[in-house]
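Would you kindly consider the sequence and fold I have copied below?
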Amino acid sequence: MITGRKTLAWPRSFRFKLMVTSIVCILLPAFITLAVYNMLTKDTVKEEAVSQAHQKLELVDGYVTNLFHYMLYIANNVQNDSEMNVILKAVAAGKVYEGVNAEYEEFTDRSKITNKIDNMTVLGDKARVTILLKNGTHFANYPLYEYNPNLIREEPWFDRLNQLRGLESFWIGTTPTVFYQDKTRSPHQISMARTLRGGGLTPYGYVIVTILEDQVSSIFKKLQADQETMLLDAEGKMMSHPDPQRIGEAFPYAERAGKQADPNIIRFEGESYIVSTHKLSLTGWELVSMTPYKKAVYKLNSIFSRVFMIQLASFFVFLLLFVYLIGTFTRPLVRLGRVAETVQRGNLEVRSNLRGQDEIGYLGESFDQMLDRVKAMISEITMTQARKRKAELAMLQAQINPHFLFNVLNSIRMKVMRSGDADSAAMISSLSKLLRMTISQEKNAIPLHDEIDTIVDYVKLMNMRQKEKASLVLELDRDTLMVAVPRFFLQPIIENALIHGLSQRAGYLFIGSEQAEGGIQIKVRDDGQGMSQHTLGLLRTKLMESVEKEEKQHAPVNKFTSMGLSNVYERMRITYGERFEMEVKSEEGHGTEIRLYIPRLEAGDDV
């Protein structure tokens, strides 16, 4: 019974379905993507292009080496085949066929040799094999009307064969094709030779294996679309090339490649080429490939593009599968979401009516049960917050608008000036400026320099009221002066610093500004009496908890009050939200420092 219940419960579990679907639809394409990117390295395009050029040349080297090994294999078989060597040594020693069956025996021996040669070449690439004995006897796997094997003795390299020792091979290289039927197909041929020796040191014959040059160049032509490949001899001359007319020419870039800073890249006639070389250990010849750099890069880019498209298609397919399966499993959530949207638009009477034994069923039932309470809470919170914001903004931003008082003060200032009392006139002038700032309410945001000017006038007024004056020090980054800030956000801080920090005695006030990431930072510092750590902790707590005014009345007497700071903090948080930051540092007997981070106003922000 327990097993049966678990079996029925798990398939109905939304969590189980979501987990399985996530594993299949997310991890599988992630593994495929990882495998693709592991196969295709992400090195620089230049290194990758050079690497691919080397890889292509190594591939060519494999085919060419196999072809030369095939020639070597034929020569080795001729040299090591005991039956052939018995016949060849006897013929070279002047064996005379006598008797009634003389012609048949001679034919049989010759057939054995030619059959063995044919068997060696029947499964591989086409190769012309010539066995030439000292006495002029010869064996070959081609018709004599195509070429007379004795003409090999007239070749300029033939005398060098007698200098070979043991199993040494002589790679003759590229020469004009001597076989009549093959001249039209390939004008050049490549040959190698070995000596046939008996018990002594003097050879009794020679074996020459020849292939057509186009058997090598055909390998090169497979890469002709974007890569020029050639075979060079020890002197740097072309032995094999897709263009047979260039055979015999010297490789034109060998000297240039040695002078380049990067030997893999050469520049010729305004175009860069990737040059790859590979020496053939078997022959001492060298394979060289030249690839236009632009074509190599283009091909690599197309590879990466195709890989990207494969990834994109793979992720798209699995995304569709994931969306389909998740959509099927979470269809009840769609209904629940629509109900939530209806509630968000203000209709709290709607219900989801979702029921079931899985998580979604429990969620729908709980959601329906909470809608009544949510309706009441939303209504209450909306009304409370609206009243609170209006009250706070009215309290923090409301300013007296006494036009008549401003005009009267201007009249008084002019009269005092005429009477010669310059100090009183200056005091009235500063007060008038403050009133002008209060009266002018066309906009709530002003440049920082206007706010600083207001603070300067305010400090002048305060210095005229008290016996000992406080000095104001300004260090303002000029790039911050035009940043828009809320009106009168510094005045409560300066007032607290003068009244509670300096306690109306001499001291200094410091205001600094500098640019910060995404906004500006303002520092306000005084050298007053500061606060104890306990008082500072209470202040920070009140700022974080947005305390009400009645709670602020319990602040310690003769200490730095949080009234002005709380007003500033509340107003700035209303304006900027959580982007605004304020930090208070203080030490008893060593003054107080307040740091404010003010983010720059974005389009649509209102102060």
Q: What stands out?
A: The two ends are 67 Å apart (CA to CA). Residues 1-10, 398-403, 547-562 have pLDDT under 50 and may be disordered.
